[in-house]
Amino acid sequence: MSVAVREAECPSDRNTAAAPGRNGWRRWVISGGGLGLLRPAPGSWGSVAPAAVFWLLLMAAVAEPWRSLFCAVGALAAGVLTVWLAPWACAHFQQRDPGPVVLDEFCGYWVACLGLPAPAALGHPGPAWLMAAGVYILFRLTDTLKFFPCRQLERLPAGWGILLDDVAAGIQVNMLLQIIFRFAQG
């Protein structure tokens, strides 16, 4: 079901229909290498890639603050690309917040990972996998349920609305996990 796209938020791209080959790279980038084109739940598929990267960082024993620096740079790059490519994506997919756009999930997931401690038994894949999966589940729940202020941020124009609700969801997950880890440490 297509949502009506307001011209001021998602200007039309007259070249989209005329030259589909020219836009292939944009479609590939904004969909997270094609993950956003998978069905059902493209946002869930789109969150798999940053979760896998976070898991690999944990498995490689990348220490803080380097792990968080990597996540911050990844989040920043995904955020900039989302805002930059969103007007094209809105026009191309004819939706205000197109499902295939999943770079916002990359950004939100990596925001959720900032400053998280590594699992105690880092050399064993179980704890690292559980942490990456736990962040994934909490992020998807938070992004789907749209707790305050996510729903309100979603209403911002074009790329900002697409991006900032996921950033807020990532911040909410990060705050929750920081509190849990602080209590667990005693």
Descriptive notes:
By secondary structure, this protein is mostly helical. It has one domain (48-185). It has 8 helices and no strands. The radius of gyration is 17 Å and the shape is globular.
Structure described in brief:
With 186 residues, the protein is mostly helical. The chain is built from eight helices and no strands. It has one domain.
Strand portion:
under 5%
* H/E series: HHHHHHHH
**Major sheet attributes:** none
Radius of gyration: 17 Å
Total of domains: 1
| Unreliable sequence segments | 1-8, 12-20
Helix residue percentage: 55-70%
Shape: globular
State the end-to-end distance. 49 Å
Task: Report the average pLDDT across residues.
Answer: 85
Structural class: mainly alpha
